[in-house]
UniProtKB/TrEMBL annotation:
<dbReference type="InterPro" id="IPR001279">
    <property type="entry name" value="Metallo-B-lactamas"/>
</dbReference>
<dbReference type="InterPro" id="IPR051453">
    <property type="entry name" value="MBL_Glyoxalase_II"/>
</dbReference>
<keyword id="KW-0862">Zinc</keyword>
<protein>
    <submittedName>
        <fullName>MBL fold metallo-hydrolase</fullName>
    </submittedName>
</protein>
<dbReference type="Pfam" id="PF00753">
    <property type="entry name" value="Lactamase_B"/>
</dbReference>
<feature type="region of interest" description="Disordered">
    <location>
        <begin position="195"/>
        <end position="214"/>
    </location>
</feature>
<keyword id="KW-0479">Metal-binding</keyword>
<keyword id="KW-0378">Hydrolase</keyword>
<dbReference type="InterPro" id="IPR036866">
    <property type="entry name" value="RibonucZ/Hydroxyglut_hydro"/>
</dbReference>
<feature type="domain" description="Metallo-beta-lactamase">
    <location>
        <begin position="16"/>
        <end position="196"/>
    </location>
</feature>
Length: 214
């Protein structure tokens, strides 16, 4: 019997990035998705929910999503999984990028496991299929729980918008193609947590997101 996912959103960094604590309701085993910073706040949320974190997941390599991953890995003693290898250049340059934006000092991070299209990630009793969705960044991935009709989409798609494509490695046509060919076909009933802003459903985005019409 697949587990039931529970999620708590912890906004971090001046970019108000949705770091997400996801766990399986039955076992209370979970993962931290995109720990971009404010690690004490993230750890307080873990303690408050009583979650046993077994891994850190990264949707992509941008500083607001990944800058705290290496330190949190050290604090919790757990592996980092994701994103796709194409974002290695972003993860390697996290210290420089954090300094450019005036953020807290960051460490580069090398994941314990790179993820690719078709891979599977296990979190407690939850199973996530991996979609490689380049365009916002070359190595962006989406985590999909088909059983629970739920996805963690990073900055691929937002409620009413899509990820920026004017950053290094961005590509607007690639992003639109990834959303239309990989994400929307998951089904209108699939709920998603994006990297910023409110949650939504793929059905709402398919009919009303101005970037996805036509």
């Amino acid at each position: 019997m697949p587990g039931t996912p529970r999620a708590g959103i912890i906004p971090v960094t001046p970019f108000q990035q949705n770091c997400t604590l996801i766990w399986d309701d039955a076992t209370k085993v979970g993962a931290v998705v995109d720990p971009g910073g404010d690690l004490d706040r993230i750890q307080a949320a873990i303690a408050e929910q009583g979650v046993a974190v077994e891994k850190i997941l990264l949707t992509h390599g941008h500083v607001d999503h990944a800058a705290g991953a290496d330190e949190l890995r050290e604090r919790l003693g757990v592996p980092v999984e994701g994103p796709h290898l194409a974002d290695k250049f972003l993860l390697d340059s996290l210290p420089m990028t954090a300094a450019q934006y005036g953020l807290d000092p960051a460490r580069p991070v090398t994941p314990d496991r790179w993820l690719d299209q078709g891979d599977v990630v296990q979190v407690g009793e939850l199973t996530f299929d991996i979609l490689h969705c380049p365009g916002h960044s070359p190595g962006s991935v989406v985590f999909v729980s088909r059983d629970a009709r739920f996805a963690l989409v990073g900055d691929v798609v937002f409620k009413g918008s899509i990820g920026r494509t004017d950053l290094p490695g961005g590509n607007h046509e690639q992003l639109i193609r990834a959303i239309k060919e990989k994400v929307l076909p998951l089904g209108d009933d699939v709920a998603f947590i994006p990297g910023h802003g409110p949650t939504g459903t793929l059905g709402e985005e398919r009919v009303s997101n101005p970037f996805l019409q036509g």
